[in-house]
Write a structure and sequence with these properties.
globular; mainly alpha; 466 residues
């Protein structure tokens, strides 16, 4: 293979960053003063565990997506989710955390120099909303959210996007979409936070941004050949989808309950609402399929459960556990209907990322504005929803949702267009036909199968290549 400047550029950038990091001065741990809130060992332990749980969601997402695509694209789909752990894992330390949580520039973005190369993180005072854990732990916990978000977009552009182009998308999306929206929503001086918007664990920051980017990517990349021919693509491995769902559900306890940033009653409430919404949504999707004349399926329950997890994310700590049932059910039904409408359209969102994550996040943000209750979350001055007599909060949530949808879609669309201008965004027709596993990675998906030996009738296990 001929080497070009474009092909060696990623390696050169990584080497330059590694060399620059050599000269960052090591720092001592910050020790809270006598008049400051002291660190809590229990809170540190819980957020450490939650950080690991959120990281587990990334390989879980890889299984979830990888099981649903064609056999010839399993590996390429899975690596696009997992590689975000590498790209964002470095980018977040260099500049991502600083742009998200650094000194606010007009409420729109963090100063890139505030925590450049994590300078001042280890030696800095605790984050104002997480005073019982070190700033470094807060930064690493937030890193896991930044990692999984671009990975969610993979499902919409699967089976036709070049791997190198997707790497560039992760970088640009993380800096130009994720970081600004995280700053708006979660920095105390962010303009959405100052508007009175409440997003407990990432309805806007993670799911709406990813869902809108997915829609933009599907539009720019256009339709796959099999989609134009209206050929049904069989799921490569339904058990993978089930495993992925289990890992996502398990990791989501850290995603939502961990966002309480402490071992508190708020974390307990978020844990309970997370499980309940997922359970209700999984059942709602499966039962609604039956109402439409389909058979109950593994894929239906799994997709529904994930939609429920998405929908409860912005509300997890703010609503009561009983109210999470309606959030899960409404989210599942709306996404199910949206998937049906999309299937009759020319939009080729391969794994329905926008109907599930985009609309799921939108539903969650709006229903947070409906069902948030001070008795549930116990936060002084916290959100109180429309259902409990406060319509102004609902309209605040609605405005925030509209702003993030418009910004995320527009910027993501421009990112995909820019990448397509400087690099081929889509694989060739021949590469699409052969499959991205072979053409992008020179690897093939092997599945063990029991074959009957015709001569002696014995069962022989052989790897079968598809």
């Amino acid at each position: 293979m001929k080497l070009s400047f474009k092909s060696v550029m990623p390696f050169l950038v990584l080497v330059v960053l590694a060399l620059a990091a050599m000269f960052v001065t090591p720092e001592a741990d910050y020790v809270p003063g006598a008049s400051e809130t002291q660190y809590s060992a229990a809170d540190i332990a819980w957020v450490l565990v939650s950080t690991a749980l959120v990281f587990l969601m990334t390989p879980g997402l890889a299984f979830f997506y990888g099981g649903m695509v064609h056999r010839k694209n399993v590996i390429s789909t899975m690596i696009k989710s997992v590689v975000a752990a590498g790209v964002v894992g470095v980018l977040w330390v260099v500049v991502g955390f600083s742009m998200s949580f650094g000194e606010s520039i007009g409420g729109f973005i963090g100063n890139p120099g505030t925590f450049l190369f994590f300078k001042g993180v280890k030696s800095g005072a605790a984050w104002p909303a997480a005073t019982t854990i070190p700033l470094g732990l807060f930064a690493i916990f937030q890193m896991m959210f930044a990692i999984i978000t671009p990975g969610l977009v993979v499902g919409a552009v699967a089976e036709r996007i070049r791997f190198t182009s997707y790497i560039l998308f992760i970088v640009l999306f993380s800096l130009l979409v994720y970081a600004p929206v995280a700053h708006w929503s979660w920095h105390p001086n962010g303009f959405l936070a100052k508007m009175g918007v409440w997003d407990f664990a990432g309805g806007t920051v993670v799911h709406i941004t990813a869902g809108c980017a997915a829609l933009a990517g599907a539009l720019v990349l256009k339709r796959r050949k099999v989609h134009i021919a209206q050929k049904e693509t069989p799921a490569a491995n339904v058990p993978y989808v089930l495993i992925g769902t289990g890992l996502l559900w398990f990791g989501w306890f850290g995603f939502n309950a961990g966002s309480a940033v402490g071992a508190t009653g708020l974390a307990v409430n978020a844990f309970g609402t997370t499980n309940t919404a997922a359970a209700a949504a999984g059942l709602a999707w499966m039962f609604f399929d039956v109402v439409k004349g389909k058979k109950p399926s593994v894929l239906g329950f799994c997709i529904g459960a994930v939609v429920g997890l998405v929908a409860i994310t912005p509300a997890a700590g703010f609503v009561g556990i009983p109210q999470s049932i309606i959030i899960g059910v409404v989210g599942a039904i709306i996404s199910n209907i949206a998937v049906s409408v999309k299937q009759r359209s020319t939009l080729d969102d391969t794994l329905d990322v926008f109907p599930c994550h985009g609309l799921g996040g939108i539903v969650g943000m709006l229903l947070t504005g409906v069902f948030a209750n001070e008795l549930a979350h116990g936060i002084k001055g916290g959100p109180q929803g429309l259902f409990y007599g406060n319509p102004s909060f609902f309209f605040t949530q609605f405005k925030a949702m509209a702003i993030v949808v418009l910004y995320s879609f527009t910027v993501s669309f421009l990112i995909f267009k820019f990448i397509n201008f400087i690099l081929p965004l889509r694989v060739t027709e021949e590469e699409e036909e052969l499959g991205l596993d072979e053409t992008q990675h020179n690897e093939k998906y092997l599945q063990g199968t029991l074959l009957v030996n015709g001569e002696n009738g014995k069962l022989v296990e052989k790897p079968v290549e598809f």
